[in-house]
Specification:
Elements (H helix, E strand, L loop, with lengths): L2 H20 L1 H12 L12 H7 L7 H18 L7 H20 L26 H16 L6 H37 L6 E6 L6 E8 L2 E8 L9 E5 L12 H10 L3 E6 L2 E6 L3 E2 L2 E2 L2 E6 L6 E8 L5 H12 L3
Antiparallel strand pairs: 1-2, 2-3, 3-4, 5-6, 6-9, 7-8, 9-10
Helix pairs in contact: 1-2, 1-5, 1-6, 1-7, 2-5, 4-5, 6-7
């Protein structure tokens, strides 16, 4: 999720755990813990695929959080020694402030390596877009209420808890919506005799009403859209080619192996000029995607390995207009 939402979530968690005992300091440290995991973006990395796939790795690991929590609590108690009696609550605030960041990121499609350094694939429940005002606004409003209202009353604390509760209920709603859309996608593809190996449903930008469906098969992938209020239950799919043969003899090329693992198989392979390009088809929509990487150059008889290079993504205003129109007008 976006950093503002993560700060608000951490701050709301801090207020819920320790706000009544230490006041706005709980909001401050909770917000800082909510931001801290995303500071890995400031670490310079040499390769394009490294920068893409090492984000949300060690800095989002529950194991790292468990090791880091005592150190942060020690720092907090040095700064606020008068709060030492709440040591256990500080432990809860710090760990939950960090952990809820990673768990919320798991609800997006990017993928979060919460079990790093284990080699398990990134977790991507893919039920919410990285920016969703319906989730964020109650959190932010509740935190602001707790910050500006007098501590002599519990009203600000209560409003913060209400905001956190509403956001959590909405998050549960996104999971229910995803399960429903996934079921509809399976049924629709079965009706149309479309074979596939993997299927992914993900909400489109800024909402959980219009969903995008991606299905992957050998040498092709399908894309469709479904609105929760659509009257028709048949989803229209378009298919697009993907040539995995371009990756022959590149199986051990690190960028190729890493992208296959990180995308969990939701990628396409194309040749653009002499460049062999892998595209993460989870983020964006056909034909404009956010993450496209050159991994090799065409050769005879086999492609030549090259350092990874991220290619620029396109911005299509007509596509955004279509998306907004589709959200407002179910079929």
């Amino acid at each position: 999720m976006d950093s503002i939402t993560q700060i608000a979530l951490g701050a709301a968690v801090g207020e819920s755990v320790l706000g009544r005992q230490v006041g706005n300091r709980a909001i401050l440290w909770g917000g800082l813990c909510g931001l801290l995991p995303d500071l890995d973006l400031l670490i310079p990395l040499s390769g394009a695929v490294e920068s893409f796939t090492y984000h949300r790795s060690f800095s989002h690991s529950l194991f790292v959080f468990a090791a880091l929590t005592p150190l942060l609590v020690l720092l907090i108690l040095k700064i606020h020694p008068q709060t030492v009696e709440y040591r256990k609550r500080w432990y809860a605030l710090v760990f939950l402030g960090l952990a809820t960041h990673s768990l919320l990121d798991c609800f997006t499609v990017y993928g979060t390596q919460i079990f790093w350094p284990l080699s398990t694939p990134p977790v991507m429940w893919a039920s919410i877009f990285i920016i969703d005002p319906v989730y964020s606004i109650p959190l932010i409003a509740g935190v602001i209420a707790a910050l500006i209202m007098s501590r002599r009353s519990s009203r600000g604390h209560l409003l913060c808890m209400i905001g956190l509760t509403l956001s959590s209920i909405y998050l549960l709603w996104t999971v229910g919506a995803k399960l429903y859309v996934t079921d509809m996608a399976h049924k629709s593809m079965k009706q149309q005799n479309i074979e596939y190996q993997r299927l992914l449903t993900v909400p489109t930008a800024f909402n959980t009403v219009l969903w995008r469906i991606i299905a992957v098969d050998d040498n092709r992938y399908y894309e469709g859209f479904y609105h929760l209020l659509d009257k028709t239950k048949t989803i229209r799919f378009t298919h697009h080619s993907s040539d995995d043969k371009l990756l022959e003899n590149l199986e051990n090329h690190w960028p190729v192996k890493r992208l296959k693992w990180f995308t969990r198989g939701f990628y396409s392979v194309q040749k653009y000029g002499d460049d062999v390009v892998i595209t993460d088809i989870r983020m964006g929509m056909e034909p404009n995607y956010f993450f496209r990487f050159k991994v090799a150059e065409a050769g005879n008889p086999h492609p030549k390995m090259t350092p990874s290079e991220r290619l620029p993504s396109n911005r299509d205003l007509d596509q955004l207009r279509w998306l907004w129109h589709r959200i407002r007008t179910p079929h």
